[in-house]
Write a structure and sequence with these properties.
Elements: H1 6-29, H2 36-39, H3 58-75, H4 77-82, H5 84-112
């Protein structure tokens, strides 16, 4: 076996053994006394109004997906900000076009009613 792979195997062994050992040790030392109140969905003292496996409306998922899309798109601004001086005016125009497309998408989603909660 080539000696270049030894650090990788050591890292893999540590990466696998550490979480397994931590979970086993935590299971051995933690107190375990389950009772009916503790096994309920919420432990805040208020009885649950309904089953916790209820359905969500599609609107919730649309808003969540739009949030992720807009959030990920704005992350693309970080590399541009780091290399701002190297890009010059071409980089400025490029980011203005990118932000315009992002803004048009946001306005389109707003007009479609995708951001309305009610």
């Amino acid at each position: 076996m080539p000696s270049g792979y030894v650090p990788i195997f050591i890292f893999l062994a540590v990466a696998i053994l550490f979480p397994v050992a931590t979970i086993i040790v935590a299971k051995l030392i933690r107190p375990s006394a389950p009772f009916l109140t503790k096994l309920e969905a919420y432990e805040c003292g208020i009885k649950a109004a309904s089953d916790s496996r209820g359905r969500y409306t599609v609107r919730f998922y649309i808003i969540a997906i739009l949030f992720v899309i807009f959030d990920v798109e704005t992350i693309f601004l970080i590399p541009w900000a780091v290399r701002y001086h190297a890009f010059g005016w071409f980089g400025v125009v490029e980011v203005v076009v990118f932000l315009a497309i992002l803004f048009v998408g946001y306005i389109w989603a707003y007009k479609k009613g995708a951001l309305q909660w009610v």
